[in-house]
Structures are given as C-alpha cells and as structure tokens.
Amino acid sequence: MLKFEHVGKKYANGFEAVKDINFEVESGEILVLIGPSGCGKTTTMKMINRLIPNTSGKIYIHGKDISKENPDTLRKNIGYVIQQIGLFPHYTIEENVGLIPQLKGWDAGKKKERVLEMLRLVGLDPDVFAKRYPKQLSGGQQQRVGVARALAGDPEVVLMDEPFGALDPITREQLQDELLKLQKEVKKTIVFVTHDMEEALKLGDKIAILKDGELVQFDSPEQILSQP
Ligand code: ADP
Ligand code: ADP
C-alpha cells in the first residue's frame, strides 16, 4: 500500500539525511519509524506528504507514484499529527476537526456528522467539547483532537510524528491504548515516529529502525523480540 523504492534525500547543503530506503507496508498496518535524534525519521515521514521532496527513488501509495500527484490533493489524503499539536487557536474544536472535510468540499451535514463521529471515536463528548477552543482543553485532550482531525478527512495514510511525546507518562499510555483500539475500527495505514522502543513494540505492526539515514532493520515486533 505504501512503498519506498530506493528513496533518498539530499538536502540543499549536500547533507544526505536519508539513503536508499526500501520497504513496503500493507493497508491498515502501523509502521513505526524509530532511531536516535537526527537519524532521518522526520525527513522520511515528510517525504510521504511531499513537505520535503525526495531527491532519489520513488514513493508509491496504492501503486501510484506520489511525485506525479498534485501536492494539495495528496495532502488532503494524508492525515498529519505532530507533537506540538498544531490546533488552530481561534477555531473551535469542531472547526479544527472539520478542516479537511471543509477543504474537500463535503456538504455541511456530512461534515458535521463526520466531526461528531471522530470526536466520539477519540473519547471526547461532542456536547461538551465541540464548541470549546483548544486552550480550554488539557494537553491530552488537545492531542485527541489532533488525532480526530487527522482522521476526519478519511485519509489513505496518517502520519504521526511523536504525537504523544510531550505528554505525561500516564496520559501517554492511555493514548497509546486508545490509538490501538481506534485502529481496530478505522484500519488506517499509519506511519508513527518515536524514539521510544517500548512504544514502538506496543504500537507497530512493522518497525523500521533507522541509523544515520539508513534503514538497518525492518521487522515485526515479534521478529525483533525473538532476536538473541
Ligand atoms: P532544502 O531545500 O534542502 O529542504 P531548506 O530550505 O529546508 O533546504 O534549508 C536550507 C538550509 O538550511 C539547508 O541547506 C541547511 O544548510 C540549513 N538547515 C535547515 N535545517 C537544518 C537542520 N535541521 N540541520 C542542518 N541544517 C539545516
Ligand atoms: P530525526 O527526525 O530522526 O531526528 P531528521 O529527519 O529531522 O531526523 O534529520 C535528519 C538529519 O538531516 C539531521 O542530521 C538533520 O540535522 C539533517 N537535516 C534536517 N533538515 C535539514 C535541512 N533542511 N538541511 C540540511 N540538513 C537537514
């Protein structure tokens, strides 16, 4: 479903942040990218929505070469959750979650229904939260909204860059459990970046270990745990 073929990124200053990466993940799988700071996780992820264009190789989604697609169309089909949340402070929760459906031009009824469904899915009662603004929510609640927003446009792929990294350990574990539960319903293809192996083993169907821009291992958690 998501395929990297000899993908590389050389930045304008000549630095090669990602080198000849190859992998494929199936629809509905969670791929975890893990490795130390600076190993190329964020670069790898941002190449998927072309925030950073790759400089070699090809990336395919459902067999389509993404470099041939209109970037705006591509990004509407890719949900994105980041650590710093990134909700729009002057939009209500409902407006934030409805952003992509709005951009996709869904009619008001369908949009509203979808927003309420997404809020319920991430454990936020719409009657309580829909009309609030982001700053009236806790960090964990805001991050739930971030997940709801990323899913609302029914994307083909969801990118999550250390989405729970800034949360306290208890909230973090709670959100990990909720993500797994939610994934059973929505079955999205998710690319999840972390530097925490425990989180990777808990969430990943496939784990890609990066080191200095190279993919040094690509395995299931079971395979990784069974190694001597
Ligand atoms: P590119 O067009 O290759 O994506 P950018 O416009 O993002 O380049 O960055 C321009 C320049 O800024 C880079 O060539 C690099 O010198 C510097 N730079 C930006 N971010 C970083 C970083 N995280 N590490 C090192 N250099 C950086
Ligand atoms: P990670 O997400 O694993 O911490 P990144 O993908 O952000 O790693 O960065 C990988 C490497 O590329 C780092 O060494 C970083 O400094 C470098 N880098 C990131 N952006 C740029 C840029 N615009 N120009 C040059 N080098 C960059």
From TrEMBL:
Catalytic activity reported: a quaternary ammonium(out) + ATP + H2O = a quaternary ammonium(in) + ADP + phosphate + H(+)
Broad class of where this protein is predominantly found: membrane
Quaternary state and interactors: The complex is probably composed of two ATP-binding proteins, two transmembrane proteins and a solute-binding protein. The complex is composed of two ATP-binding proteins (OpuCA), two transmembrane proteins (OpuCB and OpuCD) and a solute-binding protein (OpuCC).
Keyword annotations from UniProtKB, A to Z: Amino-acid transport, ATP-binding, CBS domain, Cell inner membrane, Cell membrane, Membrane, Nucleotide-binding, Transport
EC number: 7.6.2.9
Enzyme class (EC, first level): translocase
Subcellular location: Cell inner membrane
Gene Ontology molecular function, alphabetical: ABC-type quaternary ammonium compound transporting activity; ATP binding; ATP hydrolysis activity
First-to-last residue of the parent protein present: 1 to 228 of 377
Signal peptide range: none
CC per GO annotation: plasma membrane
GO biological process: amino acid transport; glycine betaine transport
Protein name from the UniProt record: Quaternary amine transport ATP-binding protein
Membrane topology classification: Peripheral membrane protein
Family stated for the protein in its record: Belongs to the ABC transporter superfamily.
UniProt keyword Transport present: yes
Species the sequence originates in: Paenibacillus glucanolyticus
Keyword Membrane: yes
Residue ranges occupied by any ABC transporter domain in the UniProt entry: 2-228
